[in-house]
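debug: dumping io for the single-chain case to check the tokenizer round-trip. Nothing else runs in this session.
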Amino acid sequence: MRPATGGFRSSRRRVAVGLALAGILGCASDPPATAPPSADPRVRAEQDALLLEKAQAFRAAIVDRHLAAEGYFLYSIDLEVIRDQLARGTYPALGDTPTYTGLLAASFCARADVETGAGRAQAIADAGSALAGLEALAQVTGRVGLLARGVQRSPRPERSQPDNRWFAGGSGFEAYVWRGDASMDQYANGLLPALEACRTYFPERVRTLVRGVAELLLATRMRLVDPDGRVTKYGEVGPSAGWGFNPIAKLTGYAVFALAAELDPDPRFAAQRDALRDRNRVVATSTITNIRIFGLTSYSNELMAWDLYRVLVPVARRTHDPALADLENGMQRSWLRVRSDGNAYFAVLFCRLAPQSCDPGILENVRETLLRFPLEKRRLAPSPALAELPRAFLPSRKLRAQARAPVPIELRPAENFEWKSSPYRLDGVTEPSAEYTGLDYLAAYWLYRGLE
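debug: decoded output
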């Protein structure tokens, strides 16, 4: 990612940070092993300053060119045309806008939890704007609780895939078109984490959003349904999702009603939560949220599981939900499955949700990962150093070559959200004008700061 003008306070400061990054990243062909915590408080302070500078640079780039006027997040852009797109409202035809807009709002609220003064005020303002983006994604569909996967001003985008479903905007959004076929991950990864993280800062707005989703699911028998009457491809979030064998879907539906029952007095929401838990046993039957067979797995499912635990475990503790023991059991199983991957986001969530099980070394590994996290988020050609890494005997789930051990984070091909991608990946698409964002860094960094 190329930081926006003003992302650093001065050119001298930029040079200093660049030198510090070079020192930490070291030689790309010989990445250093995880370093022990520094005993020198001056070194620790310099590292803290560097981590914060990186967060400020990523935020500056997001504000500069990755936010629609309506507040939702443009997580992948073409640098050659984005200025014109922003000016005309003809945004990229993205399909996971609620996911990343929600994670952005959650990250800003996590920053507000640890900052003070002007930093906290900025974080709350940023979170409010991202929450407005989520509200627009819900309102444009004309159906309370149904999220649009993407939105832009009419007409329908010319380069959209043939199977994408676009609809005319609802009342107040007549000048827009929106992409349908919302899936459970837009709620599990995006909306729900945002509502949980931001509930104390925007209580009424959060209550309105979660109430809308709960109303929708009550009316549709726990399904996401587009205006044309079709159930979306991955829109079943009730007890029968995947013939009853889809734990992520079942936990997504349960999370909606657990949060709605806490925040809204409507007795229907508590009744539905209790029925899902006691009669349908959706939590008790969902303690295994993903599997690995010979190292092959879905990292996207891992992200949904951890984003759901981020919501469900705190809600269960606050409300004394009998499902807590099953949720904690599932979370511990998930940690055993991912702990060797070096995923900083999962690690900080685990330490936040299970502090008694968080070894200090886990947070030191998170710190080291964030220090080595690259500022560059364009889709540049893969590093030649990747060719030197030992290959695994089996290819990835998509039959691509993968490394035997997690690839050093500074060598990994850029992705739109590092923590849902395979840490063993070796290849990536080269498209220098395409740019992702540092949302992945921000999501892990501000939670890490809250654990210091």
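debug: round-trip ok. Strands lie at 77-78, 150-153, 166-168, 176-179, 223-225, 231-236, 378-379, 431-435.
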